[in-house]
């Protein structure tokens, strides 16, 4: 709570005071606000768009959840993240996770694939090695090439993303939190009491958490902080069966990640959900785009994502039409090492930043929210945060 001194010196009429303000009601900001409210903090969650919206990174019906990661710290963090997802399911009374299993495949000896198997083994997470032949038996619709192998993460599955966002925001409100949507933050005045000005009014708080997704750099520049963040426009593609109902690819597909020889980016897929009869398969990458300009057609994209995907579908999922039936857009905010930034502002220690989730942050969000709330309140962090510190960038 506020110290009396802070109240006397910094409150002014018409400026509502909170313990903590969270800027940005995507999945990371919403979970941060939820954890802050859980620790008894009077918390305001601010969002520029009317909720729900589709302009950031957290919209859509589905995201992959998995423990299969080449970095052991993620496999470790995912164990608690699964528990926190289960807690939210219970608190909200909403089913948020469907266990489909996840297959990761690539050329035998692929370094990342080997690290994934090693991590699953070390953390005693049930997994299986699948040969090309075993994959054919289990998933006849997926056609691995000679010399390719797969790893089967039994815990992998689908998160119901839009339901999760709604659930966490509702739980936050139930705990006494406040959400103001359709209210853009236009100015932040740092200090022992931070003043946050929006398109509607001003608020003050001892602590601020910035979780602005692809707008992060725009919010941080006036605060004197330049981070190595890139914003990418992602084409979210859905593919149709050649003979509807004739193959079993839609009915029994697992989630998958594929490292294809000769392609720089991974490709991933999820079972049919959003559009009956269509399956979602995307490139883990895209072309750089300003968040406000993402709807402008880029003439000559550097990453020819749709062509890469069409080639992939022809080679690996021959029961699907090798041209997308539906294409939608979403934004990634990526860092050079694809690890997020979870840290204090270097000059204003009462401002905490969560940014650069690099296209894989949804599954981790219940834990990210917990970590950001720990950073915000000064509680000891539950994890070693070295991979996420700002100082790792020169
Ligand atoms: C196509 C796609 C597929 C993905 N697949 C997976 C997956 O399978 N598994 C997985 O784990 N992750 C996945 N991800 C990544 C995951 O969805 C993101 O890491 C996550 O949604 C990022 O959330 P965020 O809260 O940081 O950003 P956002 O959701 O963009 O939230 C930021 C919010 O801040 C608000 N904001 C910004 N500036 C202001 C301001 N000035 N005032 C007020 N509000 C402001 C924005 O409007 C926005 O609502 C995927 C992402 C995409 C795009
Ligand atoms: O995070 C995930 O699991 C997905 C699939 C791999 C690429 C990005 N998102």
UniProtKB/TrEMBL annotation:
InterPro entries with a match to the protein in the record: FAD-dep_OxRdtase, FAD/NAD-bd_sf, MTOX
Record keywords: FAD, Flavoprotein, Oxidoreductase
The reaction(s) this protein catalyses: L-pipecolate + O2 = L-1-piperideine-6-carboxylate + H2O2 + H(+); sarcosine + O2 + H2O = formaldehyde + glycine + H2O2
Keyword Oxidoreductase on entry: yes
The FAD dependent oxidoreductase domain, residue ranges: 19-375
GO cellular component: peroxisome
One Gene Ontology molecular-function label: L-pipecolate oxidase activity
This enzyme's EC code(s): 1.5.3.1, 1.5.3.7
GO BP terms: L-lysine catabolic process to acetyl-CoA via L-pipecolate
Any Pfam family: DAO
Keyword Flavoprotein among record annotations: yes
Cofactor: FAD
Function: Metabolizes sarcosine, L-pipecolic acid and L-proline.
Family that this chain belongs to: Belongs to the MSOX/MTOX family.
PANTHER family, per the entry: PEROXISOMAL SARCOSINE OXIDASE (PTHR10961)
Protein name: Peroxisomal sarcosine oxidase
Organism: Pelobates cultripes (Western spadefoot toad)
């Amino acid at each position: 709570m506020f110290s009396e001194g802070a109240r006397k010196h910094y409150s002014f009429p018409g400026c509502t005071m909170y313990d903590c303000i969270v800027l940005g009601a995507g999945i990371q900001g919403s979970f941060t606000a939820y954890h802050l409210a859980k620790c008894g903090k009077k918390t305001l969650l601010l969002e520029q768009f009317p909720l729900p919206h589709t302009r950031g990174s957290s919209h859509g019906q589905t995201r992959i959840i998995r423990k299969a990661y080449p970095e052991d710290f993620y496999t470790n963090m995912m164990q608690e993240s699964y528990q926190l997802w289960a807690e939210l399911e219970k608190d909200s009374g909403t089913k948020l996770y469907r266990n489909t299993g996840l297959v990761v495949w690539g050329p035998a000896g692929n370094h990342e694939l080997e690290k994934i198997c090693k991590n699953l083994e070390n953390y005693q997470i049930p997994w299986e090695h699948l040969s090309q032949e075993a994959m054919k038996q289990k998933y006849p619709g997926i056609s691995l090439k000679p010399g390719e192998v797969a790893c089967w993460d039994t815990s992998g599955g689908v998160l119901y993303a839009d339901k999760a966002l709604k659930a966490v925001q509702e739980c936050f409100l139930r705990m006494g939190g406040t959400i103001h949507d359709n209210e853009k933050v236009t100015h932040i005045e740092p200090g022992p009491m931070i003043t946050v000005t929006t398109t509607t009014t001003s608020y003050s708080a001892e602590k601020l958490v910035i979780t602005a997704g692809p707008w992060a750099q725009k919010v941080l520049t006036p605060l004197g902080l330049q981070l190595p963040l890139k914003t990418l426009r992602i084409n979210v593609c859905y593919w149709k069966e050649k003979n509807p109902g004739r193959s079993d690819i839609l009915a029994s597909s697992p989630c998958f990640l594929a490292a294809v020889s000769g392609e720089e980016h991974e490709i991933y897929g999820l079972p049919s959900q959003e559009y009956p009869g269509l399956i979602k398969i995307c490139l883990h990458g895209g072309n750089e785009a300003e968040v406000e300009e993402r709807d402008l057609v880029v003439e000559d994209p550097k990453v020819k994502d749709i062509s890469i995907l069409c080639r992939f579908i022809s080679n690996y999922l021959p029961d699907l039409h090798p041209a997308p039936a539906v294409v939608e857009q979403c934004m990634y905010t990526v860092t050079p090492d694809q690890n997020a930034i979870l840290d204090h502002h270097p000059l204003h220690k009462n401002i905490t930043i969560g940014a650069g989730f690099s296209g894989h942050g949804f599954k981790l969000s219940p834990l990210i929210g917990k970590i950001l709330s720990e950073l915000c309140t000064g509680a000891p962090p539950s994890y070693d945060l070295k991979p996420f510190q700002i100082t790792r960038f020169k």
